[in-house]
Amino acid sequence: MTAPTVKVTMLGHSGSGKTTFTIGMLASMGPGEDDYAVSTRDWDHGMELLDAWSRLLETGKFPKFTDMSEFKEYAFVLQRGLAETVVTVDWVDYRGGALNDRAAATDTAALRARLEESDSVYIVLDGGILGGWIDEIAAGTSKEATLASARHRLGIAWTSNMLLTALDRMRSAGRRVPSLVVLVTKSDQLHEVLAKRGADKKSAELSALNAVRRLLPFAFSGGACTLIDFVSVGRPGAPPQPSGFKPPFLFTFLRYLHDAVATEERVLQAATAKHERTAGDLALLARRFGGGFFQSGKRDKLTALQQQLVAESSAHKARLEQLAAEAAKLEAELAGAHIFRNGDPGR
Ligand SMILES: Nc1nc2c(ncn2[C@@H]2O[C@H](COP(=O)(O)OP(=O)(O)O)[C@@H](O)[C@H]2O)c(=O)[nH]1
Ligand SMILES: [Mg+2]
Known about the structure:
Elements: E1 5-11, H1 18-28, E2 36-40, H2 43-59, E3 71-80, E4 84-94, H3 108-116, E5 120-126, H4 127-139, H5 147-154, H6 156-172, E6 179-185, H7 187-195, H8 201-215, E7 225-230, H9 247-271, H10 279-289, H11 304-326, E8 338-341, E9 344-345
Parallel strand pairs: 1-4, 1-5, 5-6, 6-7
Antiparallel strand pairs: 2-3, 3-4, 7-8, 8-9
Bound molecules: guanosine-5'-diphosphate and magnesium ion (MG).
Guanosine-5'-diphosphate binds at residues 12, 14-20, 62, 185-186, 188-189, 232-233, 235-236.
């Protein structure tokens, strides 16, 4: 079996820290203590991203990519030791959602299609702006401290709308909805703003978690599995202190395996003759195998072709389960991560 492909889409204001996160993620997920390592599929992408990271650490200068296209697409590969390619990650940094260039976005159709097939969507929030909003609320004086104003400044109104439309369409097509990562970038700025109010790091992050819940309620509702991750390269001018770059990728990967096993289970149940097939089952089967083979109702016997499809699906499921079992130790890396399922803390 070829390695499965996981699709990740990052949505955020331009300047919110998407590119910085992408390069920091690659640098942090390189070969480390465990056998897993991330690399790029393309030679040039690897050089481009890691050079930018070295420059950032050495000089404090953030990368200025001149490429202004709407989509920046990378393929990452997760390998385990020398033995195998575990998964390919198809990663899109969408430079949309900026307040002023939204109208100019020509590629929203491509983004919509992309969202509908994403396994994980990263909503990128600028931690400095978020901290500023929390500060205004605490001050209690500013008229700016409204939810609408924060949504506007963080670029969320637009992002939420795009995402909610995609989620609705995915559910009606019987697809599984993506896991969500709320990336609070520039967390050094968040800490700095709230330190002025006497908040230590922990209580600043607690305030931010509460603020994120108000801003993105759907990410904490029934059916959602969401990681909130605070990420920073450190304060400009100070020695770099990268933090928070590992959890999102691991969360996405582990969620993907978990959900893919569950989907395969459903496909198998619907494909075998053991139970009455519903319209939902048929939609699932049509998407997987093409229409026509499977009919509604319960059949005593499967055709030879159906049996072959079921066998392939079983093999696929066994392989996914094996990957999930082997990756279980990566869960330890997520200890202490802010993960919410159906709005409740926990995985
Ligand atoms: N203080 C601080 N600034 C950051 C951090 N990450 C990014 N920035 C700033 O945000 C700018 C935009 O980041 P970038 O990753 O290019 O955003 P993108 O447009 O979403 O890809 C950078 O040029 C930095 O000035 C961080 O961790 N801390
Ligand atoms: Mg960028």
